[in-house]
Design a protein that fits this description.
Largest sheet: 7 strands, mixed
Order of helices and strands: HEHEEEHEEE
Number of helices: 3
Number of strands: 7
Shape: globular
Strand content: 25-35%
Distance between the termini: 29 Å
Number of domains: 1
CATH class: Alpha Beta
CATH topology: Alpha-Beta Plaits
Helix content: 25-40%
Length: about 160
Amino acid sequence: MIVVEEKLTEIFEQLPEIDGFKPIYKWGNEFHLQQQLELYSKANTSPYPLIYQTSNKSVQQTFGNTCEANLKLVLACRNTEVSLTNEERWAMSYKNILYPLVRNIEKCFDRCGVVNWSGNYDMQEFPNYGNGKDNFTLDVWDAIVIDVKIQIISNCIRQIRF
């Protein structure tokens, strides 16, 4: 059996810093996310940029020693300036942090040696996520949600050059 979260943890550990910060990969549901954000807050540290995988469903192929997973990855950075225009948000959060993170995740999937994927994914931007009111998280985010289907092969993960 291949545990998707274990493989992704190993792959995403190789991600380089973005804008001076190392991306953090976590997974679970909304309750777990709240717990994680509270722990970071109590420790006075930042979990951003954050790659948060919501719980997924995988199809295990025992004889091929592979699994297929439909992933939903939420890429988020904290931006408490709720009055910024979208143009300002794109210049700060998206151009400098979130889009480079998306490109690096693409490189991870392409170069790690354990992921097969078509190169296609659905992506949706969420500037000023939750507007600070209806947000299910503790923080105000600029975020991108990626839906992608991957196949993971039970091989050794290669070193990824960015």
